[in-house]
Design a protein that fits this description.
heterodimer, A: 295 residues, five-stranded mixed β-sheet, 9 helices, 66% helix, B: 121 residues, mainly alpha, 4 helices
């Protein structure tokens, strides 16, 4: 800073001294102004070497003016000095703009990077959500398939001692009375419980189904007794199934007495068939194969 | 014999003078022209201030040629010096203009990218 200040003083004093001898030409005045402008611009910090060169050029013009006064050489040196100062100012502008561009490129890269990171994060999150949903769907499907298989197995085992029929009123599981109860009793036999466990297992698989347990007797004895017995037996079966986990909201019990025979009451075989408990299952979820994707 | 000896230096002296009056050192003659070419290459002609100084440079080269023809070597030398200064200034003005344009374009790109990103999100 000091040498620059010193030289400014030198230039001013030179100008003052020469002022006595002659009037400085317009070119020299312009050169001085241009140099001041360059020196006071950012050039001093970004292009100090250019400022020094411009100063030397101006000093050359001043020296020519001091020695020879206002002539073609002095004017030419001043002209050159003015251009060099202007060039220094422009050079500082170039360097500043280049720096601005470099900063902008860095910012552009940062912006692009953060944009890309943001997008990739978003994609990853969506991927993860999709994968999670897929897994859940698969789990659900597997669980449903397992439950269906279990229900199908249970129904197959049921078929060994009960008849199973699809009727308009629903799926009808018919359990022979002899399998479940002693004659004229409503209390379940020990062996009956084992079998009802399998019924429960088959019914539990479908959470949407509702059930009606119907008690039926043969036509022997009077209706009052038969109606009560059939109702008590239905209740026993219902209570047991509830104990095994079937929701009480989904299962009801009715006593039909001897009013709905399925066989001839005239022979012992027919009467045995009429003594029965029917479990009517309705409102079942359709099989997975028939299911639409709409929920 | 002695006449011949006198004649040779005289010829040489004439030749030397002839050279000096008709041309300047090659470097001084070519420097402004090289700078003018550089200014043209960088596109100074399409920048208002650059074009002005490019014209000054060319005019002064022409002036130097004319002064040389008239035998004014000193004047020609000064004109060439001024021409070089103008051409160099034209180069730098064009360079500054170009750098500013590029910085602006890059800054514009950032703005566009930020805008597009905001729309995308």
């Amino acid at each position: 800073m000091k040498p620059l200040l010193f030289s400014s003083v030198a230039i001013l004093s030179a100008a003052f001294l020469s002022g006595c001898a002659a009037i400085p030409p317009k070119e020299l005045l312009d050169a001085r102004a241009a140099y001041e402008k360059a020196k006071n611009s950012q050039a001093s910090s970004v292009a100090p070497a250019d400022v020094a060169t411009a100063r030397d050029a101006l000093l050359l013009a001043e020296k020519s003016f001091d020695n020879d006064g206002d002539n073609m050489a002095t004017r030419s040196y001043a002209y050159v000095a003015e251009r060099m100062s202007e060039r220094t100012t422009a050079r500082s502008g170039t360097l500043t703009a280049e720096k601005d561009k470099e900063d902008a490129e860095k910012a552009l890269l940062d912006t692009a990077t953060s944009t890309a990171e943001g997008l990739s994060k978003e994609v990853t999150q969506k991927d993860r959500a999709l994968a999670g949903a897929g897994e859940k769907l698969q789990d659900e499907r597997a669980a449903r398939m397992a439950a269906e298989r279990k229900a199908a197995d249970a129904l197959a085992r049921l078929a060994a001692f009960a008849s199973i029929k699809e009727e308009p009123r629903g799926l009808v599981i018919t359990l022979p009375g002899g399998v479940l109860f002693e004659t004229n009793q409503a209390k379940l036999l020990g062996t009956a419980e084992e079998r009802l466990n399998q019924v429960a297992e088959a019914l539990l698989a479908d959470r949407d189904a509702t059930m009606v347990v119907e008690g039926h007797t043969d036509s022997q004895g009077n209706d009052t007794i038969n109606d009560k017995l059939s109702k008590d037996r239905a209740d026993s079966v219902r209570d047991y199934l509830v104990k095994r986990g079937v929701s009480p909201d989904r299962i009801t019990a009715v006593g039909k007495g001897s009013k709905s025979p399925i066989a001839d009451n005239k022979n012992p075989e027919g009467r045995a068939n009429n003594r029965r408990v029917e479990i009517v299952v309705s409102g079942r979820t359709p099989k997975a194969g028939a299911k639409t994707e709409v929920r | 014999m002695s006449r011949t000896y006198l004649f040779i230096p005289a010829t040489i002296a004439l030749a030397t003078v002839g050279c000096a009056t008709n041309s300047l050192p090659v470097q001084q003659m070519t420097a402004p022209r090289q700078e003018i070419r550089a200014a043209e290459e960088i596109g100074a002609a399409s920048h208002p201030q650059g074009a002005l100084h490019l014209k000054y440079a060319k005019d002064q080269v022409a002036e130097a040629d004319r002064l040389l023809k008239d035998g004014n070597e000193d004047g020609a030398q000064l004109a060439l010096m001024r021409a070089t200064a103008d051409a160099k200034l034209a180069v730098e003005l064009a360079r500054e203009d170009k750098a500013r344009q590029e910085a602006l374009e890059t800054q514009k790109k950032i703005g566009e990218l930020r805008k597009n990103t905001a729309v995308a999100q």
